[in-house]
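Worked example 3 (structure in, sequence out).
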């Protein structure tokens, strides 16, 4: 494995983890923009803009984009989150130049008004589709509640009203503010050479305008809150349970990932054995979510509405037991084995390494090899888990429930 990093003359970051023995190559453009960077009058614009990038520019039509990617056999897509938008593709190494050219073109779309109005209807249909997914609705409401008053509480999709009322010029202004070189990181992994990556980057990325990064970060201290809403289409209760966890720059993030596996792994954590396996709940898990300036313990529970109160008490009891007594060495060893296996299996494909290499550089300006990442998890002790829980206890700070209508 070879790691390289540089900054182009226009300010665009380039990082690469290259492996000449890999059978494929992956490339991604990470744009530091997402729902937290939006204002109320353009809620959902980051995700909308992701769709519009595939509508092409003066060189490639929307049909060209889809046709050429398909002709090359590339696996391509994009995704928008609270803090980043990622455009990526993986391909056979011999098709990297053409795939790179097309992917780079997505960074400079035309944003034509006709395309904008057509795609607006697609976004509205997507919002309607997610309205039928109770787990998504519960999570969206929980984020808005937990981060009320903070930019992380803003919906990634936006609302029907915000999308319907969004004019194309507002999207164009947002694009000019966020899609500049200082806000973009190019990541390459797999079978290529550093010389080839640099040549392609200079050939296709120097036309991206320069800019100055400007971010406003701030630790959020949520107030305890509980919300219950009813939905006529539901037959089960869906609940999200949030509390503060380490942010992305924290050295506690490795311990946090292991703790989430011990407490809430979907098929073997404490929550599973105490709630799901005995039949008290259909599902119950816990995840660790990290952001630039904040972190989140995110618990999820679904099951019989009549059991919800008892199940929340069971969850709280498990959390309290962990807060007071920590975890056992056997639990920590098992969690390490799970996490290490996931890291290794994911690393066997360049596309799997793309998300890790990109995330590490974007959030911490660091590069960890697979071996170094595994070593960091192996170094976590039960005492460190206990220290983590003292600083970031598992709690029901925010509880949001969606229940069937009576």
């Amino acid at each position: 494995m070879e790691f390289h990093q540089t900054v182009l003359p226009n300010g665009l970051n380039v990082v690469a983890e290259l492996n000449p023995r890999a059978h494929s190559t992956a490339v991604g453009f990470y744009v530091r923009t997402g729902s937290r960077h939006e204002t109320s009058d353009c809620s959902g614009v980051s995700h909308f803009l992701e769709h519009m990038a595939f509508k092409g520019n003066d060189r490639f039509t929307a049909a060209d984009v889809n046709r050429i990617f398909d002709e090359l056999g590339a696996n391509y897509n994009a995704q928008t989150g609270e803090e980043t938008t990622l455009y990526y593709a993986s391909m056979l190494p011999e098709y990297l130049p053409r795939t790179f050219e097309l992917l780079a073109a997505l960074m400079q779309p035309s944003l034509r008004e006709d395309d904008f109005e057509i795609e607006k209807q697609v976004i509205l249909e997507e919002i309607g589709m997610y309205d039928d997914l109770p787990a998504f609705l519960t999570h969206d409401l929980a984020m808005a509640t937990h981060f009320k008053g903070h930019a992380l509480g803003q919906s990634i999709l936006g609302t029907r009203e915000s999308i319907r009322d969004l004019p194309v010029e507002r999207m164009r202004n947002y694009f000019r503010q966020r899609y500049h070189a200082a806000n973009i990181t190019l990541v390459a992994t797999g079978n290529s050479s550093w010389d080839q990556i640099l040549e392609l980057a200079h050939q296709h990325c120097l036309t991206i305008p320069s800019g100055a990064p400007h971010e406003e970060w701030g630790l959020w201290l949520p107030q305890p809150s509980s919300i219950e809403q009813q939905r006529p289409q539901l037959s089960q209760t869906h609940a999200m349970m949030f509390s503060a966890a380490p942010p992305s720059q924290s050295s506690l993030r490795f311990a946090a990932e292991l703790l989430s596996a011990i407490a809430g792994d979907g098929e073997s954590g404490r929550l599973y054995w105490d709630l799901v396996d005995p039949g008290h709940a259909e599902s119950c898990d816990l995840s660790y979510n990290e952001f630039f300036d904040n972190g989140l313990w995110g618990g999820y529970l679904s099951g019989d509405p009549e059991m919800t109160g008892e199940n929340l008490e069971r969850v709280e009891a498990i959390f309290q037991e962990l807060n007071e007594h920590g975890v056992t060495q056997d639990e920590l060893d098992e969690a390490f084995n799970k996490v290490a296996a996931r890291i290794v299996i994911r690393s066997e494909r360049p596309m799997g390494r793309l998300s890790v290499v990109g995330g590490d550089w974007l959030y911490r300006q660091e590069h960890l090899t697979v071996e170094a990442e595994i070593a960091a998890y192996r170094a976590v002790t039960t005492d460190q888990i206990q220290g983590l829980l003292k600083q970031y206890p598992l709690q029901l700070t925010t509880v949001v429930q969606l229940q069937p209508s009576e």
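Notes: The radius of gyration is 22 Å. The CA atoms of residues 23 and 284 lie 38 Å apart.
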